[in-house]
Amino acid sequence: MRIIQASQYAEEMNNIAEPALLSIRTSGMMPVKDAKDGEGIYYEIYKTPGAKGAIVLSHGFSENTEKLKEVIYYMVEQGYRVYAVDHRGHGRSFRQSHHPNLANIRRFSDYVEDLHQFVSLIVKTDTDLPLYLYGHSMGGGIAAAYIESYPQDFRKAVLSSPMLKLYLPFPEPVTRLFTGSMCLIGRGDTFGPGQSPYTGLEPFDNSSSANEARFDYYQQKKLANKEFQISATSYSWIYHSVKAIAKIRSAPACAKIRIPVLILRCSADSLIDPKGLDQFAAHTAGCRIVDFDNSRHEIYNSDDSVIAVYYETIFSFLQDQPS
Asked: Does 311 map to a domain?
Protein backbone atom coordinates (compact mmCIF):
# COMPACT_ATOMS: atom_id res chain seq x y z
CA MET A 1 0.00 0.00 0.00
CA ARG A 2 1.10 3.56 -0.63
CA ILE A 3 1.81 5.77 2.39
CA ILE A 4 1.29 9.52 2.25
CA GLN A 5 4.81 10.93 2.42
CA ALA A 6 5.65 13.29 5.24
CA SER A 7 7.51 15.57 2.81
CA GLN A 8 4.20 16.46 1.11
CA TYR A 9 1.84 15.49 3.90
CA ALA A 10 -0.41 18.55 4.20
CA GLU A 11 -0.75 18.90 0.43
CA GLU A 12 -1.78 15.26 -0.08
CA MET A 13 -4.11 15.21 2.92
CA ASN A 14 -5.84 18.41 1.82
CA ASN A 15 -6.01 17.66 -1.91
CA ILE A 16 -6.35 13.87 -2.08
CA ALA A 17 -7.18 12.07 1.15
CA GLU A 18 -9.66 14.45 2.77
CA PRO A 19 -11.71 15.10 -0.43
CA ALA A 20 -11.88 11.36 -1.08
CA LEU A 21 -13.15 10.72 2.43
CA LEU A 22 -15.64 13.58 2.28
CA SER A 23 -17.20 12.11 -0.85
CA ILE A 24 -18.25 8.92 0.98
CA ARG A 25 -18.85 10.32 4.48
CA THR A 26 -22.09 10.68 6.37
CA SER A 27 -22.37 11.85 9.98
CA GLY A 28 -24.87 12.05 12.78
CA MET A 29 -25.54 12.55 16.48
CA MET A 30 -26.64 9.57 18.58
CA PRO A 31 -28.64 10.36 21.75
CA VAL A 32 -27.25 8.63 24.85
CA LYS A 33 -27.96 8.67 28.57
CA ASP A 34 -26.76 11.78 30.44
CA ALA A 35 -26.84 13.92 27.27
CA LYS A 36 -29.25 16.83 26.94
CA ASP A 37 -31.79 17.05 24.11
CA GLY A 38 -29.98 17.74 20.85
CA GLU A 39 -26.67 16.51 22.23
CA GLY A 40 -25.12 13.05 22.20
CA ILE A 41 -22.35 11.04 20.60
CA TYR A 42 -21.11 12.39 17.28
CA TYR A 43 -20.26 9.75 14.68
CA GLU A 44 -19.06 9.41 11.11
CA ILE A 45 -19.58 6.64 8.56
CA TYR A 46 -17.36 6.12 5.51
CA LYS A 47 -19.29 4.01 2.99
CA THR A 48 -16.52 2.46 0.92
CA PRO A 49 -17.91 1.04 -2.33
CA GLY A 50 -17.65 -2.76 -2.50
CA ALA A 51 -16.29 -3.02 1.04
CA LYS A 52 -15.07 -6.42 2.26
CA GLY A 53 -15.48 -5.59 5.95
CA ALA A 54 -16.20 -2.79 8.39
CA ILE A 55 -13.93 -1.30 11.06
CA VAL A 56 -15.19 0.55 14.14
CA LEU A 57 -12.73 3.14 15.47
CA SER A 58 -12.25 4.07 19.14
CA HIS A 59 -9.95 7.09 19.52
CA GLY A 60 -7.62 8.06 22.36
CA PHE A 61 -7.77 10.63 25.14
CA SER A 62 -8.11 14.25 23.93
CA GLU A 63 -8.60 12.97 20.38
CA ASN A 64 -11.59 12.68 18.01
CA THR A 65 -12.47 11.38 14.57
CA GLU A 66 -10.75 14.35 12.95
CA LYS A 67 -7.34 13.30 14.25
CA LEU A 68 -7.68 9.83 12.71
CA LYS A 69 -8.32 10.98 9.14
CA GLU A 70 -5.13 9.39 7.79
CA VAL A 71 -5.93 6.14 9.62
CA ILE A 72 -9.45 6.17 8.13
CA TYR A 73 -8.09 6.93 4.65
CA TYR A 74 -5.88 3.83 4.60
CA MET A 75 -8.71 1.66 5.90
CA VAL A 76 -10.96 2.91 3.11
CA GLU A 77 -8.19 2.41 0.54
CA GLN A 78 -7.83 -1.19 1.72
CA GLY A 79 -11.52 -1.84 1.13
CA TYR A 80 -13.08 -1.37 4.55
CA ARG A 81 -16.14 0.62 5.51
CA VAL A 82 -15.35 2.73 8.58
CA TYR A 83 -17.49 3.74 11.57
CA ALA A 84 -16.01 6.25 14.02
CA VAL A 85 -17.28 8.03 17.12
CA ASP A 86 -16.17 10.96 19.25
CA HIS A 87 -16.29 9.56 22.78
CA ARG A 88 -18.28 11.53 25.35
CA GLY A 89 -16.30 14.56 26.50
CA HIS A 90 -14.37 14.70 23.22
CA GLY A 91 -14.67 16.34 19.82
CA ARG A 92 -18.21 17.13 18.76
CA SER A 93 -19.83 14.90 21.40
CA PHE A 94 -21.46 16.16 24.58
CA ARG A 95 -19.50 17.17 27.68
CA GLN A 96 -19.81 16.25 31.36
CA SER A 97 -17.49 18.98 32.61
CA HIS A 98 -17.75 22.61 33.65
CA HIS A 99 -14.65 23.46 31.58
CA PRO A 100 -14.41 23.10 27.77
CA ASN A 101 -10.82 21.78 27.92
CA LEU A 102 -11.45 19.16 30.60
CA ALA A 103 -12.30 15.49 30.00
CA ASN A 104 -14.54 14.30 32.82
CA ILE A 105 -16.44 11.04 33.30
CA ARG A 106 -18.60 9.58 36.03
CA ARG A 107 -18.02 5.94 35.03
CA PHE A 108 -15.50 4.42 32.62
CA SER A 109 -18.17 1.93 31.63
CA ASP A 110 -20.12 4.80 30.02
CA TYR A 111 -17.52 4.82 27.22
CA VAL A 112 -18.12 1.12 26.65
CA GLU A 113 -21.91 1.37 26.75
CA ASP A 114 -21.90 4.35 24.36
CA LEU A 115 -19.82 2.32 21.92
CA HIS A 116 -22.06 -0.72 22.31
CA GLN A 117 -25.13 1.41 21.61
CA PHE A 118 -23.39 2.78 18.51
CA VAL A 119 -22.55 -0.72 17.26
CA SER A 120 -26.04 -2.05 18.00
CA LEU A 121 -28.15 0.85 16.74
CA ILE A 122 -26.00 2.43 14.03
CA VAL A 123 -23.40 -0.01 12.74
CA LYS A 124 -25.37 -3.26 12.70
CA THR A 125 -28.43 -1.61 11.20
CA ASP A 126 -26.30 -0.09 8.45
CA THR A 127 -24.25 -3.12 7.39
CA ASP A 128 -23.99 -6.88 7.62
CA LEU A 129 -20.28 -6.87 6.73
CA PRO A 130 -17.77 -8.63 9.02
CA LEU A 131 -16.94 -6.25 11.89
CA TYR A 132 -13.51 -5.41 13.27
CA LEU A 133 -12.51 -3.10 16.11
CA TYR A 134 -9.57 -0.67 16.24
CA GLY A 135 -8.76 1.25 19.40
CA HIS A 136 -5.90 3.60 20.23
CA SER A 137 -4.68 4.50 23.74
CA MET A 138 -7.76 5.33 25.87
CA GLY A 139 -9.79 3.99 22.98
CA GLY A 140 -7.75 0.80 23.16
CA GLY A 141 -8.71 0.42 26.80
CA ILE A 142 -12.34 1.01 25.86
CA ALA A 143 -12.02 -1.53 23.03
CA ALA A 144 -10.50 -4.13 25.37
CA ALA A 145 -13.34 -3.65 27.86
CA TYR A 146 -15.83 -3.89 24.99
CA ILE A 147 -14.66 -7.28 23.72
CA GLU A 148 -14.72 -8.55 27.30
CA SER A 149 -18.30 -7.35 27.80
CA TYR A 150 -19.59 -8.16 24.29
CA PRO A 151 -17.32 -10.90 22.90
CA GLN A 152 -19.61 -11.77 19.96
CA ASP A 153 -19.77 -8.39 18.20
CA PHE A 154 -16.39 -8.35 16.44
CA ARG A 155 -14.28 -10.89 14.58
CA LYS A 156 -10.95 -9.36 15.55
CA ALA A 157 -9.59 -6.40 17.50
CA VAL A 158 -6.53 -4.19 17.00
CA LEU A 159 -5.31 -2.33 20.09
CA SER A 160 -2.74 0.37 19.33
CA SER A 161 -0.79 1.57 22.38
CA PRO A 162 -3.81 0.58 24.49
CA MET A 163 -4.37 2.23 27.86
CA LEU A 164 -4.15 -0.90 30.01
CA LYS A 165 -1.69 0.44 32.58
CA LEU A 166 -0.52 4.05 32.89
CA TYR A 167 2.79 5.40 34.08
CA LEU A 168 1.80 7.17 37.29
CA PRO A 169 3.79 9.17 39.87
CA PHE A 170 2.36 6.92 42.59
CA PRO A 171 1.23 3.26 42.69
CA GLU A 172 -2.27 2.57 41.42
CA PRO A 173 -3.81 1.98 44.89
CA VAL A 174 -2.43 5.31 46.14
CA THR A 175 -3.62 7.09 42.99
CA ARG A 176 -7.12 5.66 43.37
CA LEU A 177 -7.23 6.60 47.06
CA PHE A 178 -6.15 10.19 46.43
CA THR A 179 -8.29 10.88 43.36
CA GLY A 180 -11.25 9.08 44.90
CA SER A 181 -10.95 11.29 47.98
CA MET A 182 -10.94 14.37 45.77
CA CYS A 183 -14.17 13.13 44.17
CA LEU A 184 -15.75 12.64 47.59
CA ILE A 185 -15.07 16.24 48.59
CA GLY A 186 -16.60 17.60 45.38
CA ARG A 187 -13.42 18.07 43.34
CA GLY A 188 -14.13 15.33 40.80
CA ASP A 189 -14.86 17.71 37.95
CA THR A 190 -11.73 19.81 38.41
CA PHE A 191 -8.30 19.70 36.81
CA GLY A 192 -6.23 16.75 38.00
CA PRO A 193 -2.63 17.08 39.29
CA GLY A 194 -0.42 18.90 36.80
CA GLN A 195 -3.33 19.49 34.39
CA SER A 196 -4.19 22.88 32.90
CA PRO A 197 -6.43 24.54 30.29
CA TYR A 198 -5.52 24.50 26.62
CA THR A 199 -3.09 27.25 25.64
CA GLY A 200 -2.42 26.38 22.02
CA LEU A 201 1.24 25.82 22.82
CA GLU A 202 1.99 22.15 22.23
CA PRO A 203 5.67 21.66 21.35
CA PHE A 204 6.40 18.75 19.04
CA ASP A 205 9.39 17.58 21.08
CA ASN A 206 7.13 16.81 24.07
CA SER A 207 4.31 15.33 22.00
CA SER A 208 3.17 11.74 21.49
CA SER A 209 3.94 11.99 17.75
CA ALA A 210 7.25 11.04 16.16
CA ASN A 211 6.66 12.83 12.87
CA GLU A 212 6.46 16.62 12.84
CA ALA A 213 4.49 16.96 9.60
CA ARG A 214 1.73 14.69 10.88
CA PHE A 215 1.80 16.42 14.26
CA ASP A 216 1.55 19.92 12.76
CA TYR A 217 -1.31 18.98 10.43
CA TYR A 218 -3.68 18.12 13.26
CA GLN A 219 -2.41 20.91 15.52
CA GLN A 220 -3.64 23.47 13.01
CA LYS A 221 -7.09 21.88 13.12
CA LYS A 222 -7.01 21.87 16.91
CA LEU A 223 -6.09 25.54 17.07
CA ALA A 224 -8.98 26.44 14.77
CA ASN A 225 -11.70 24.38 16.47
CA LYS A 226 -12.58 24.80 20.16
CA GLU A 227 -14.36 21.43 20.18
CA PHE A 228 -10.98 19.73 19.62
CA GLN A 229 -9.16 21.50 22.46
CA ILE A 230 -9.40 18.90 25.23
CA SER A 231 -6.13 19.14 27.13
CA ALA A 232 -6.65 17.76 30.63
CA THR A 233 -8.16 15.03 32.77
CA SER A 234 -10.29 15.52 35.86
CA TYR A 235 -9.83 13.77 39.21
CA SER A 236 -12.92 11.74 38.39
CA TRP A 237 -11.50 10.69 35.02
CA ILE A 238 -8.25 9.57 36.64
CA TYR A 239 -10.02 7.67 39.42
CA HIS A 240 -12.46 5.81 37.19
CA SER A 241 -9.91 5.11 34.44
CA VAL A 242 -7.20 3.73 36.72
CA LYS A 243 -9.76 1.58 38.52
CA ALA A 244 -11.23 0.28 35.26
CA ILE A 245 -8.02 -0.63 33.46
CA ALA A 246 -6.81 -2.68 36.42
CA LYS A 247 -9.92 -4.81 36.02
CA ILE A 248 -9.69 -4.90 32.22
CA ARG A 249 -6.24 -6.49 32.28
CA SER A 250 -7.12 -8.99 35.03
CA ALA A 251 -7.24 -12.71 34.27
CA PRO A 252 -11.01 -13.13 34.89
CA ALA A 253 -11.85 -10.24 32.53
CA CYS A 254 -9.44 -11.35 29.80
CA ALA A 255 -10.81 -14.89 29.93
CA LYS A 256 -14.07 -13.55 28.47
CA ILE A 257 -12.41 -12.59 25.17
CA ARG A 258 -13.20 -14.99 22.32
CA ILE A 259 -11.55 -13.31 19.32
CA PRO A 260 -7.98 -12.77 18.05
CA VAL A 261 -6.39 -9.60 19.41
CA LEU A 262 -3.39 -7.73 18.01
CA ILE A 263 -1.56 -5.27 20.28
CA LEU A 264 0.72 -2.71 18.62
CA ARG A 265 3.18 -1.34 21.15
CA CYS A 266 5.69 1.47 21.04
CA SER A 267 8.92 0.33 22.68
CA ALA A 268 9.58 3.84 24.03
CA ASP A 269 6.06 4.85 25.11
CA SER A 270 6.16 7.57 27.78
CA LEU A 271 2.50 7.14 28.78
CA ILE A 272 1.70 3.42 28.77
CA ASP A 273 3.43 0.94 31.09
CA PRO A 274 4.28 -2.12 28.95
CA LYS A 275 3.82 -4.42 31.96
CA GLY A 276 0.07 -3.90 31.68
CA LEU A 277 0.10 -4.95 28.02
CA ASP A 278 2.16 -8.02 28.84
CA GLN A 279 -0.29 -8.92 31.60
CA PHE A 280 -3.29 -8.52 29.31
CA ALA A 281 -1.67 -10.59 26.54
CA ALA A 282 -0.66 -13.35 28.95
CA HIS A 283 -4.26 -13.66 30.14
CA THR A 284 -5.85 -13.45 26.67
CA ALA A 285 -5.93 -16.47 24.37
CA GLY A 286 -5.17 -15.54 20.78
CA CYS A 287 -3.43 -12.26 21.65
CA ARG A 288 -0.04 -11.23 20.33
CA ILE A 289 2.09 -8.12 20.68
CA VAL A 290 4.12 -6.43 17.94
CA ASP A 291 6.66 -3.84 19.10
CA PHE A 292 7.67 -0.74 17.15
CA ASP A 293 10.95 1.11 17.56
CA ASN A 294 11.65 4.67 16.41
CA SER A 295 8.19 5.77 17.44
CA ARG A 296 6.21 7.35 20.25
CA HIS A 297 2.83 6.68 21.81
CA GLU A 298 0.92 7.58 18.63
CA ILE A 299 2.47 4.96 16.36
CA TYR A 300 0.17 6.08 13.53
CA ASN A 301 1.90 9.49 13.65
CA SER A 302 5.38 8.10 13.08
CA ASP A 303 7.77 8.50 10.16
CA ASP A 304 6.83 6.97 6.82
CA SER A 305 8.92 3.81 7.17
CA VAL A 306 7.43 2.99 10.57
CA ILE A 307 3.81 3.49 9.64
CA ALA A 308 4.28 1.49 6.45
CA VAL A 309 5.06 -1.53 8.64
CA TYR A 310 2.34 -0.50 11.12
CA TYR A 311 -0.43 -0.63 8.51
CA GLU A 312 0.98 -3.72 6.82
CA THR A 313 0.81 -5.46 10.20
CA ILE A 314 -2.78 -4.32 10.81
CA PHE A 315 -4.18 -5.29 7.41
CA SER A 316 -2.36 -8.62 7.31
CA PHE A 317 -3.86 -9.44 10.69
CA LEU A 318 -7.38 -8.48 9.60
CA GLN A 319 -7.13 -10.54 6.42
CA ASP A 320 -5.70 -13.70 8.02
CA GLN A 321 -8.25 -16.39 8.66
CA PRO A 322 -8.41 -17.56 12.30
CA SER A 323 -6.86 -20.99 12.73
From this structure: yes
